[in-house]
Amino acid sequence: MIPPVQPVPEPHDFEEKVRAPGRQWLATHPSAARPKDYWTLFKGTLAQGFENRCAYCAMYEPVGTVDHFASWHEDRSQAYSWENYRYCAQWINASKGKTPADKLLDPYTIKDGWFEIHLPSLHLQVSNRVPDALRERAAYVLERLHLRKDERVLRQRREWYRMFQDKEVSLKGLRKKAPLIAMAVTRAGRS
């Protein structure tokens, strides 16, 4: 999971362009299977707030998507709520699916050091810094979202680590694009 990120400020025209038309759409389509997508208009703003990193895999994500932290299956009233949006990789968003929010950890609540990548495996682990009351949920998130050792995420980690080892990216660059890998490198004394 991404190192601490501050909630992204709501854009000044979000109410006008997303929330108001979204609420109107919900009122006139109460049984529609999926809410109308007004939120993608602000995907770039959300991405910038997350420094173009997926909220869950904590790596650079140039073509991410808007994740509804509480899915619209769970709470349709949150479909057009800025506070409910997170930026993430599309495949991770699809993995999350209809998982209830109370089974997940909100990327906005993650504290520094709760998750660590271990070298040389590049597997993501729950650290001993996660409070006992949240450890089971943290482990669930890693499995449900395929973050621990899924080949899709391992390929990305391997490439960032290789680029660092081959001096194609500096430690400073690695901290910006793949901060959990940078922390693993620093812990291992390979900086």
Quick gist of this model?
The chain has 191 residues and is mainly α. 38% of the residues lie in helices and 8% in strands.
List keywords for this structure.
single chain, two-stranded antiparallel ribbon, 7 helices, 4 strands
Q: Describe it for me?
A:
The protein is mostly helical and 191 residues long. The protein is built from 7 helices and 4 strands; from the N terminus they run ααββαββαααα. It has helices at 14-28, 43-49, 90-96, 132-144, 151-165, 171-177, 179-187, and strands spanning 65-68, 85-88, 115-118, 123-126. The strands form 2 sheets. It has a two-stranded antiparallel ribbon. Strands 3-4 form a two-stranded antiparallel sheet. A hairpin with a 4-residue loop joins strand 3 and strand 4 (123-126). Helix 6 crosses helix 7 (179-187). It is globular. The two termini are 22 Å apart. The mean pLDDT is 95.
Q: How big a fraction of the residues is strand? A: 5-15%
> Tally of extended strands?
4
| Most strands sheet | 2 strands, antiparallel
Provide the structure class.
mainly alpha
What is the end-to-end distance?
Answer: 22 Å
Spatial order of strands in the largest sheet: 1-2
Enumerate the spans where pLDDT stays under 50 for 5 or more consecutive residues.
none
